[in-house]
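Appendix C. Worked example: proline dehydrogenase
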Amino acid sequence: MVTRKFFSVLSSSQFLENKARNWGPKLGATTVIAGETIEEAMEAVRKLNAQGLCATVDHLGEFVHKKEEAVASKDYCIRTLEAIDAYGVDCNLSLKLTSLGLDVDRNLCRDNMLDILAKADELNIFVRIDMEDYAHLDATLELFQELRRSYQNVGPAMQSYLHRAEQDTRSLKGVNLRMMKGAYKESPSVAYQKKPEVDANLLNIIKVHLLNGSYTAVATHDHNIIEEVKTFVREQGIPDDLYEFQMLYGFRTELQAQLVNEGYKVRVYVPFGEDWYGYFMRRLGERPQNIVFAMRGLLSK
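Step 2, the predicted output written as structure tokens:
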């Protein structure tokens, strides 16, 4: 957890972000970020599709504080949806509500999301609302419930390190949820601090949601959790069309290929854009293996 806290602090440093741009390629950022433009992201998705993998793309961007920035982010999301349709790729869209103005004005964020969901509905594309830190949790779920009254092609993520994760999962029966551990540093009053507890709760909320007959996206690189989920769905007779596995672009590619070869649906989370720094730092903080991965990239240059 010390590692996660350290990299969480680094992820919010504007000074380090500015300095890191020149080091991004050497640290391995280009291996886990699919370029800076929509076109580069679509080419990456096209290659993933050719390997039997589905995708979801996320235009990286944080710290939106002005209405104009939020509207620009909305417009970029809509252009991304149009590109997904034009390229004919098997791909969803992932986004953060803060990038659409949640911290600026709730109604602005809602209106931006309604515009995005209208376009996504027109093009038959699913939209994933990424979960952010605990301070935004209630606002995110409340806005999601409001949006769902108009559109069904949307679903949030659930973070298993939160004590309330099971309660929230049960309240969202029938919703397409992305189940994940969580990448932010949170207080012990709201979040588990030990990996075994986080892992156990991830398996718990996955099973709860599947047994409720709800679509479940299992987002993990942990092969032990994946194996337990595979055993659970087999023993419980869970239909194949009720779940999928999800992994990050550039990580555990051999495991992604193995799951596809075994007949499982696998979706790769594909981030792109110029604002890669915060995302990259959080990935390094999640697992010690990720740091090794980055250092190998640095030393190989």
